[in-house]
Amino acid sequence: NTSRSVLVPPAPIINILNNPVIPVGTGVTLPVTYGPNIATYNWTPVLNLSCTDCPTPFANPKSTTKYTVTVNDIYGCTISNEVTVTVVCNENNYFIPNTFSPNNDGSNDRFYPRGNGVARIQSMRIFNRWGEIVFERRNFVANDPNLGWDGTYKGKKGEIVTYIYIVEFVCDNSVIIPFKGNVTLSR
Predict the structure, then answer these.
(1) What pLDDT band is residue 6 in, cutting at 50, 70 and 90?
(2) CB under 8 Å to 46, separation ≥6 — which residues?
(3) What are 14-44's pLDDT values in tens digits?
(4) Measured distance CA(43)–CA(69) in Å, rounded
(5) Going along the chain, which residue ranges are E strands?
(6) pLDDT one-digit tens code per residue, 105-156
Protein backbone atom coordinates (compact mmCIF):
# COMPACT_ATOMS: atom_id res chain seq x y z
CA ASN A 1 0.00 0.00 0.00
CA THR A 2 1.34 3.35 -1.02
CA SER A 3 0.07 6.64 0.30
CA ARG A 4 0.77 10.01 -1.16
CA SER A 5 0.29 13.52 0.14
CA VAL A 6 -1.43 15.80 -2.30
CA LEU A 7 -1.60 19.56 -1.83
CA VAL A 8 -5.10 20.80 -2.55
CA PRO A 9 -4.82 24.59 -2.52
CA PRO A 10 -7.76 26.62 -1.27
CA ALA A 11 -9.93 28.15 -3.97
CA PRO A 12 -9.17 31.80 -4.69
CA ILE A 13 -11.34 34.32 -2.85
CA ILE A 14 -12.87 37.60 -4.08
CA ASN A 15 -14.81 39.66 -1.54
CA ILE A 16 -17.05 42.43 -2.86
CA LEU A 17 -17.37 44.82 0.10
CA ASN A 18 -20.33 46.73 -1.35
CA ASN A 19 -21.94 47.87 -4.58
CA PRO A 20 -21.19 51.61 -4.54
CA VAL A 21 -23.63 54.37 -5.46
CA ILE A 22 -21.94 57.50 -6.82
CA PRO A 23 -23.11 60.85 -8.23
CA VAL A 24 -22.70 61.15 -12.00
CA GLY A 25 -19.43 62.90 -12.85
CA THR A 26 -17.52 61.29 -9.98
CA GLY A 27 -15.80 57.97 -9.43
CA VAL A 28 -14.89 55.35 -6.86
CA THR A 29 -12.12 52.86 -6.14
CA LEU A 30 -13.83 49.50 -6.54
CA PRO A 31 -14.33 48.00 -3.05
CA VAL A 32 -12.84 44.54 -3.45
CA THR A 33 -10.51 42.41 -1.33
CA TYR A 34 -8.88 39.11 -2.17
CA GLY A 35 -7.60 35.98 -0.50
CA PRO A 36 -3.90 35.07 -0.68
CA ASN A 37 -1.95 33.81 -3.68
CA ILE A 38 -3.70 35.81 -6.41
CA ALA A 39 -1.42 36.08 -9.45
CA THR A 40 -3.48 37.97 -12.05
CA TYR A 41 -6.52 40.24 -12.23
CA ASN A 42 -8.69 40.95 -15.27
CA TRP A 43 -11.51 43.55 -15.15
CA THR A 44 -14.26 43.90 -17.75
CA PRO A 45 -15.70 45.97 -19.27
CA VAL A 46 -12.58 48.10 -19.68
CA LEU A 47 -14.56 51.33 -20.11
CA ASN A 48 -13.93 54.05 -17.50
CA LEU A 49 -11.44 52.01 -15.42
CA SER A 50 -8.01 53.30 -14.34
CA CYS A 51 -6.53 49.83 -14.99
CA THR A 52 -7.82 46.40 -15.99
CA ASP A 53 -5.07 44.21 -14.51
CA CYS A 54 -4.87 45.60 -10.96
CA PRO A 55 -6.73 44.54 -7.79
CA THR A 56 -8.78 47.72 -7.16
CA PRO A 57 -9.18 50.04 -10.15
CA PHE A 58 -10.74 53.49 -9.95
CA ALA A 59 -14.04 53.49 -11.89
CA ASN A 60 -15.84 56.60 -13.15
CA PRO A 61 -18.67 55.31 -15.37
CA LYS A 62 -21.21 57.75 -16.83
CA SER A 63 -24.06 55.32 -16.20
CA THR A 64 -24.68 52.31 -13.95
CA THR A 65 -22.15 49.60 -14.85
CA LYS A 66 -21.58 46.02 -13.72
CA TYR A 67 -17.85 45.23 -13.58
CA THR A 68 -16.56 41.66 -13.51
CA VAL A 69 -13.16 40.71 -12.10
CA THR A 70 -11.62 37.37 -12.97
CA VAL A 71 -8.57 36.27 -10.99
CA ASN A 72 -6.07 33.46 -11.34
CA ASP A 73 -4.08 32.25 -8.39
CA ILE A 74 -0.54 30.87 -8.36
CA TYR A 75 -1.97 27.33 -8.68
CA GLY A 76 -3.84 28.11 -11.90
CA CYS A 77 -7.32 28.25 -10.35
CA THR A 78 -9.75 30.86 -11.68
CA ILE A 79 -12.74 32.59 -10.11
CA SER A 80 -14.89 35.63 -11.00
CA ASN A 81 -17.14 38.03 -9.13
CA GLU A 82 -19.10 41.19 -9.95
CA VAL A 83 -19.45 44.67 -8.49
CA THR A 84 -22.11 47.10 -9.70
CA VAL A 85 -21.45 50.84 -9.61
CA THR A 86 -24.79 52.64 -9.59
CA VAL A 87 -24.58 56.16 -11.02
CA VAL A 88 -27.19 58.65 -9.81
CA CYS A 89 -27.93 62.22 -10.74
CA ASN A 90 -29.25 64.36 -7.90
CA GLU A 91 -29.11 67.78 -6.31
CA ASN A 92 -25.37 67.35 -5.78
CA ASN A 93 -24.94 67.62 -9.55
CA TYR A 94 -26.58 70.97 -10.20
CA PHE A 95 -27.02 74.43 -8.78
CA ILE A 96 -29.37 77.28 -9.60
CA PRO A 97 -28.99 80.60 -7.78
CA ASN A 98 -32.02 82.16 -6.07
CA THR A 99 -31.10 85.74 -6.95
CA PHE A 100 -29.29 87.69 -9.67
CA SER A 101 -28.61 91.32 -10.43
CA PRO A 102 -28.56 92.24 -14.14
CA ASN A 103 -26.90 95.65 -13.60
CA ASN A 104 -23.82 95.05 -15.82
CA ASP A 105 -21.37 95.22 -12.92
CA GLY A 106 -19.76 91.97 -14.11
CA SER A 107 -21.02 90.00 -11.10
CA ASN A 108 -24.10 87.75 -11.21
CA ASP A 109 -25.55 89.64 -14.21
CA ARG A 110 -27.25 86.60 -15.75
CA PHE A 111 -29.42 83.82 -14.41
CA TYR A 112 -28.21 80.43 -15.67
CA PRO A 113 -28.05 76.80 -14.51
CA ARG A 114 -24.76 75.31 -13.34
CA GLY A 115 -23.78 71.70 -12.95
CA ASN A 116 -21.25 68.89 -12.87
CA GLY A 117 -22.08 65.64 -14.65
CA VAL A 118 -24.76 67.52 -16.61
CA ALA A 119 -24.74 66.72 -20.33
CA ARG A 120 -27.05 69.59 -21.28
CA ILE A 121 -30.07 71.61 -20.31
CA GLN A 122 -33.13 70.30 -22.14
CA SER A 123 -35.11 73.44 -21.36
CA MET A 124 -35.21 76.48 -19.12
CA ARG A 125 -38.37 78.54 -18.81
CA ILE A 126 -38.86 81.58 -16.60
CA PHE A 127 -42.32 82.94 -15.77
CA ASN A 128 -43.50 86.22 -14.27
CA ARG A 129 -46.12 86.34 -11.54
CA TRP A 130 -48.93 86.28 -14.15
CA GLY A 131 -47.63 83.05 -15.65
CA GLU A 132 -46.23 84.62 -18.82
CA ILE A 133 -43.00 83.15 -20.15
CA VAL A 134 -40.40 85.92 -19.94
CA PHE A 135 -37.47 83.73 -21.08
CA GLU A 136 -37.12 80.33 -22.72
CA ARG A 137 -34.14 78.41 -24.09
CA ARG A 138 -33.86 74.76 -25.16
CA ASN A 139 -30.98 72.31 -25.63
CA PHE A 140 -27.98 74.22 -24.35
CA VAL A 141 -24.98 73.58 -22.13
CA ALA A 142 -24.89 74.36 -18.42
CA ASN A 143 -22.32 76.71 -16.87
CA ASP A 144 -22.43 79.33 -19.66
CA PRO A 145 -23.66 82.75 -18.46
CA ASN A 146 -24.08 83.90 -22.08
CA LEU A 147 -26.88 81.34 -22.52
CA GLY A 148 -28.76 82.48 -19.42
CA TRP A 149 -31.40 85.13 -18.89
CA ASP A 150 -30.22 88.75 -18.86
CA GLY A 151 -33.26 89.98 -16.92
CA THR A 152 -35.04 91.59 -19.86
CA TYR A 153 -38.56 90.95 -21.16
CA LYS A 154 -39.71 92.18 -24.57
CA GLY A 155 -36.59 94.36 -24.78
CA LYS A 156 -37.15 96.10 -21.44
CA LYS A 157 -35.57 95.61 -18.03
CA GLY A 158 -37.48 93.05 -16.01
CA GLU A 159 -39.36 94.07 -12.88
CA ILE A 160 -37.54 93.76 -9.56
CA VAL A 161 -39.66 90.85 -8.33
CA THR A 162 -39.48 87.08 -7.88
CA TYR A 163 -39.86 84.88 -10.95
CA ILE A 164 -40.64 81.16 -11.22
CA TYR A 165 -38.39 78.88 -13.27
CA ILE A 166 -38.54 75.32 -14.56
CA VAL A 167 -35.24 73.78 -15.70
CA GLU A 168 -34.85 70.28 -17.14
CA PHE A 169 -31.33 68.96 -16.59
CA VAL A 170 -30.08 66.04 -18.69
CA CYS A 171 -27.37 64.27 -16.72
CA ASP A 172 -24.40 62.43 -18.22
CA ASN A 173 -26.23 59.16 -17.44
CA SER A 174 -29.17 60.37 -19.64
CA VAL A 175 -31.52 60.85 -16.66
CA ILE A 176 -33.72 63.94 -17.03
CA ILE A 177 -34.22 65.90 -13.81
CA PRO A 178 -36.96 68.56 -13.80
CA PHE A 179 -36.18 71.30 -11.27
CA LYS A 180 -38.51 74.11 -10.22
CA GLY A 181 -37.86 77.13 -8.05
CA ASN A 182 -37.88 80.86 -7.89
CA VAL A 183 -35.31 83.55 -8.49
CA THR A 184 -35.39 87.17 -7.37
CA LEU A 185 -34.22 89.84 -9.77
CA SER A 186 -32.47 92.72 -8.00
CA ARG A 187 -30.33 95.58 -9.28
Answers:
(1) confident
(2) 52
(3) 999 999 999 888 999 999 999 999 999 999 9
(4) 4
(5) 14-16, 21-23, 28-29, 32-34, 38-44, 58-59, 65-73, 78-88, 94-95, 99-100, 114-115, 118-127, 133-140, 152-153, 156-157, 162-171, 176-185
(6) 989 999 999 998 898 999 999 999 999 999 999 999 999 999 999 999 999 9
Whole-number Å distance between alpha carbons of 56 and 112: 39
How many Å apart are CA 100 and CA 165, to the nearest integer? 13
Task: State the pLDDT confidence band at 5, using cuts at 50, 70 and 90.
Answer: confident
Strand partners, 9: none
Secondary structure of residue 176 in the 3-state scheme: strand
Instruction: Give the three-class secondary structure for 16.
Output: strand
By C-alpha distance, which of 30, 3, 182 is closest to 98? 182
Contact 166, 180 (CB under 8 A): yes
Using alpha carbons only, give the angle 114, 171, 128 rounded to the nearest 5 degrees.
50
The whole-angstrom distance between residue 112's C-alpha and the CA centroid of its chain comes to 20
* Closest C-alpha among 156, 182, 154, 144 to residue 102: 156
